[in-house]
Amino acid sequence: MSDTFAAARMADVAKLAGVSLASVSRALRAPDSVSPGTRDRVQRAAARLGYTPSPIAGSLSATCAPLVGVVMPSMANAFFARSFQVLSEGLERAGLRTMPGFHEYDDTREARILEAMLHWKPAAMVVTGLNHSRRVLALLAGANCPVFEMWDIDGHPVDSAVGFSNAEAGRLAAQTLLRRGCRDLVYVTPPNAVDPRAAARAGAFLQTVSVTDDARARHLRAVDRTAGAGADAIRCLIDLDGGPPDGIAFSGDALAMGALFEAQRLELSVPERIAVVGYGDLEFAGYTVPALTTLRPAHDRIGQELAAHIIARLADPGRSAVRVDVGIDVVVRESA
Amino acid sequence: MSDTFAAARMADVAKLAGVSLASVSRALRAPDSVSPGTRDRVQRAAARLGYTPSPIAGSLSATCAPLVGVVMPSMANAFFARSFQVLSEGLERAGLRTMPGFHEYDDTREARILEAMLHWKPAAMVVTGLNHSRRVLALLAGANCPVFEMWDIDGHPVDSAVGFSNAEAGRLAAQTLLRRGCRDLVYVTPPNAVDPRAAARAGAFLQTVSVTDDARARHLRAVDRTAGAGADAIRCLIDLDGGPPDGIAFSGDALAMGALFEAQRLELSVPERIAVVGYGDLEFAGYTVPALTTLRPAHDRIGQELAAHIIARLADPGRSAVRVDVGIDVVVRESA
DNA sequence: ATGAAAGCGCTAACAG
DNA sequence: CTGTTAGCGCTTTCAT
C-alpha cells in the first residue's frame, strides 16, 4: 500500500492540517494543550497520512528516547528470557521499545553495557538484582531516568525494585524439608559467581536449619546449574562423610531434575530415602518421576509489574519509588 | 569519576584537537580519510574527554542507526533466547545494539512490530523464518537495509538466510527410526500455527516414511510443545487404532521428555517397545532415563554467523546475500 | 491557544 | 585533505 517509505513527516501533517509544526507536536503529545478544533484537524491529518513521529528525531530534542534499557545476566535462564518478553510486550503497548544487554554476571561488562545504553537516553533503565559495582551505581545515579531493579528485593534499591525475596525462598525450601521430618540436609547451588541470588537462597536455607534442634545442613557447590551437575551432585552426596543426607534442596529445577534421574539410576528412592526440593517450577517439573516438589516465584508477574510501573512512572515522574514483592509459592508434588 | 553526565560532545573534541567538526567526524568513523596528524590529535582529544558519539544525533543525520532489529516469535523457546543473546553479544562488539520484538506467530503483530522498528532506521533487520505475510514482505522490501532471515533455509530468502533445513531434520528423524527397524511411526507436533517450522519437519518425516516399503507413519497433533502435552500424546498413542506405534518422533525435546516420563509411569519400555526421538538437544536430553536420542541443529552457530555476516555486510554493502546452513546432527543416546 | 525560531549533536555535500 | 554550510525531524522556549 502506502509503502513508498518516504514516510510522512510532521511538516506534511502541519501543512495538511493548516497549522504550525509546534501545534502538531502539541496536539499529538499533549492533546489538552491545544484547542479542540486544532486537535481534531491534526489528528485527522496525521491519520490520513499514516504519520508516525520519528523516534530518533524526537529523542534528539526531547530529554529522553522512547526506549527502556534492560540489563540482564543472560538468556540461558528461562525466567529471564520469559520475563523479558513479557516486559517487552507490556512496554510496546505504550510505544516503548526495549534495548537488552547481557553481562553474564561480569561487573565490567555490566558497566560497559549500561554506559552504551545511556547514550541512547533511555526513558527508564531496568537492571537485574540489587547488588551492583560502584561503577554501575555511579552510572545509574548519573542516568537521568528512573531505575528499576528486578528479581530481588532483599536490600536497598537505587530507586524501585520488582522481584521477590530469595531469602524467603531459601527459608521455604528448608521448612518444606524439615516439616516432612528430614534432619540431615544439603543445599546445592552453582558457584556464587554464577548466581548471586542462588547464594542468597543457600544462606537463608542454612540459617533456617541451623536454628532447628537436631537438624544440620551442608552446602554443596555444583559446577554449574545444569542437569548434569545435579546428577554429579547426587553421586557426590551418597558417599559424603556421615552418610547421605535425607533431604536435598537445589537452587534450580534443572539441577534437581538431573538429581532425580541419577537417583533413579542408582536406585535411591525419592522421596523415601532422600527428599528433593527444586526451585523455579520449570515447565517439566510436574512431569518428572517422581514429580518435583519445587518453589515457584511468580516470575510472570515480574515482567508485568515492571511494565506497569515503568509506564505509570513515565506518565507521572513525580510518582514515588515502588517495591513490589511478587511472592513465592511452594508447589508440593511427590519428591518432597 | 568523570560522570557529570553532561557528556562531551563533538564540538568539545574539535576544539581540543584544533580542527573542525567535520574532521572529528571523519577521523572517528573513517580514519583513513584524514591525515595521520589530524587523526592522532582527534583520537587523543576524544580519548582525553572520554568522548562517545551520540548514537541518536548520528542516526538522525546518517542513513541508518547503529541498531539491528530482531523479530522473533517468542522467548519461550530456549533456542531463540540463546541465539538472540549470542547475536546480541556479537553485534555489540561492533557497536551495534539490538532491538527485539515478539509476535507469538501472529502475522499482524509481526507487521506492526516491524513497522515500529523501521522508524528507528535500523542498520539491518533480522526476522525469523522464511514465510512472511505480504505486508511484512512489503515492509522488508521498503526497508532500506539488509534483511537476514534466521532459523530456516528451506525456501526463498528476501535477502540472506542463516539457519538449517527443517526438512532435513524431519528426514533424519525418520531415518533414525527406520534404521533401527521401526515400521509403525508417528510424528508429534504442536498445531501448525504454533510452529510452522515444526510442521515442515513433520512433512519431511511423513514423506520419508511413505517411500519406505512396509512402513507407515501418522501425524499426531499435541496441544502445545510442553512436557505435559508429550505425556498426553503417549497416552493417546497406546490406544490408537491398529495398536501403538513402535517409533515416535517429537518436534521438540520437551514433548519427548514428557513422553518418556509417561512411558515410565505406564511401564512401556523405551526403546524396546517404543523408540523415541526428540528434537533440539535441550540441556536435559542427556540425563533423562533412558537418555534421549535427539536431533541437534547447530543453534549456537545461528547467532554467531548472523552477527558475523551482518557486520561484514555493513562494512561492505556491496557484499552479496548469503545462505548459511549451520547443519544438524543426530545425537544417538538410548531412547532410539 | 498558537506561531516563529532556535536548537538537539551529528553527517554529508560542497567548496576550496 | 580540510573547513563551511546545510540540514536530519522534532521539541521547546519565547513572543504574540
SSE blueprint and pairings:
Two copies of one chain form a homodimer.
Chain A: H1 10-17, H2 21-29, H3 36-49, H4 55-61, E1 65-72, H5 78-92, E2 97-102, H6 107-118, E3 122-128, H7 134-142, E4 147-150, E5 160-163, H8 166-179, E6 184-189, H9 196-210, E7 216-221, H10 227-238, E8 247-250, H11 253-265, E9 275-277, E10 294-297, H12 299-315, E11 323-325, E12 328-331
Helix pairs in contact in A: 1-2, 1-3, 2-3, 5-12, 6-7, 8-9, 10-11
Chain A binds a DNA duplex (16 and 16 nucleotides) through residues 9-11, 19-26, 29, 33-35, 38, 53-54, 56-63.
Characterization of the model:
The structure is a homodimer of 336-residue chains. With 336 residues, chain A is an alpha/beta fold. Chain A folds into 3 domains: 47 residues, 434 Repressor (Amino-terminal Domain); 128 residues, Response regulator (Rossmann fold), CATH 3.40.50.2300; 132 residues, Rossmann fold (3-Layer(aba) Sandwich). Helix content of chain A is 43%, strand content 18%. Chain A contains 12 helices and 12 strands. The first copy, chain A, has a 6-stranded parallel sheet. In chain A, helix 8 crosses helix 9. Chain A is elongated, with a radius of gyration of 25 Å. The termini of chain A are far apart. The mean pLDDT of chain A is 93. At the A-B interface, helix 4, helix 5, strand 2, helix 6 and helix 7 of A face helix 4, helix 5, strand 2, helix 6 and helix 7 of B. The structure holds a DNA duplex (16 and 16 nucleotides).
